[in-house]
From TrEMBL:
Necessary cofactors: [4Fe-4S] cluster
Family annotation (PANTHER family): A/G-SPECIFIC ADENINE GLYCOSYLASE/ENDONUCLEASE III, ENDONUCLEASE III
Single GO molecular function: class I DNA-(apurinic or apyrimidinic site) endonuclease activity
InterPro entries: DNA_glycosylase, Endonuclease3_FeS-loop_motif, Endouclease-III_FeS-bd_BS, HhH-GPD_domain, HhH_base_excis_C, HhH_motif, Nth
Source organism: Acetivibrio ethanolgignens
Domain HhH-GPD: 42-189
Enzyme Commission number, as recorded: 4.2.99.18
Gene: nth
Function: DNA repair enzyme that has both DNA N-glycosylase activity and AP-lyase activity. The DNA N-glycosylase activity releases various damaged pyrimidines from DNA by cleaving the N-glycosidic bond, leaving an AP (apurinic/apyrimidinic) site. The AP-lyase activity cleaves the phosphodiester bond 3' to the AP site by a beta-elimination, leaving a 3'-terminal unsaturated sugar and a product with a terminal 5'-phosphate.
CDD domains (UniProt xref): ENDO3c (cd00056)
Name of the protein in question: Endonuclease III
Binding site for [4Fe-4S] cluster: C191, C198, C201, C207
GO terms under biological process: base-excision repair, AP site formation
Catalytic activity, as annotated: 2'-deoxyribonucleotide-(2'-deoxyribose 5'-phosphate)-2'-deoxyribonucleotide-DNA = a 3'-end 2'-deoxyribonucleotide-(2,3-dehydro-2,3-deoxyribose 5'-phosphate)-DNA + a 5'-end 5'-phospho-2'-deoxyribonucleoside-DNA + H(+)
């Protein structure tokens, strides 16, 4: 990466640090690693706010990983019915819990390979766990990170895994987790998908999409 581009990236990161938190923050309520894993599985194609509403009762009804492992699929479907793709998610959560109990002694693994071997766990979910639980530098490519990273010119890719690798090359490792948190906040408040508030955006000067609009 050229010196000028490195400086541009650093200026963007400095602005994100200035406007948003520099503390690690997770928007999904949880008390244990396995609760976060279940919450992230539920969060696919769903808002964190909706997931938190559902898990508030879900984690009371199923207080242990073993309780999830032994749950009835049809009953679990009803427990999470207000969340999209609830049938697939109910099946995956139970299968995931069973495998954690039977093969991992109830512990959530930390490696990307072991995490993605679990039912319902892709790279995005695995990276959330690695970043939030194990504080392993990781990049989570959700809808906000994908959209805004493309606008900033950090990637031209559409595939989340390819975007992840592009961002790993562009961003300093010590900012990987923070970038996720900050861009999600930015995507929810300013650079929204339907009606971005470009006039209010402190990153407008560095936005490739804004340059096209000029």
């Amino acid at each position: 990466m050229r010196k000028a581009e490195k400086e541009r990236v650093q200026k963007i990161l400095n602005l994100l640090d200035e406007h948003y938190t520099t503390e690690y923050k997770c928007y999904l309520n949880h008390e244990t690693p396995w609760q976060l894993l279940i919450a992230v599985i539920l969060s696919a194609q769903c808002t964190d706010a909706r997931v938190n509403i559902v898990t508030k009762d879900l984690f009371v009804k199923y207080p242990t990983l073993e309780a999830f492992a032994n749950a009835d699929t049809k009953e679990m479907e009803q427990d999470i019915r207000s969340i999209g793709f609830y049938k697939n998610k109910a099946r995956n959560i139970i299968l995931c819990a069973r495998r954690l109990v039977q093969e991992f002694n109830g512990e959530v693994p930390s490696s990307i390979e072991e995490l993605t071997s679990l039912a319902g766990v892709g790279r995005k979910t695995a990276n959330v766990i690695r970043g939030n639980i194990y504080h392993e530098p990781s990049i989570v490519v959700d809808t906000h990170v994908k959209r805004i990273s493309r606008k900033l010119g950090f990637t031209k890719e559409e595939d989340p895994e390819k975007i992840e690798y592009d961002l790993m090359k562009v961003l300093p490792e010590d900012h990987w987790i923070l970038y996720n948190i900050q861009i999600i906040t930015h995507g929810r408040g300013i650079c929204t998908a339907r009606s971005p508030k470009c006039g209010e955006c402190f990153l407008r000067e560095y936005c490739k999409a804004a340059e096209v609009e000029k």
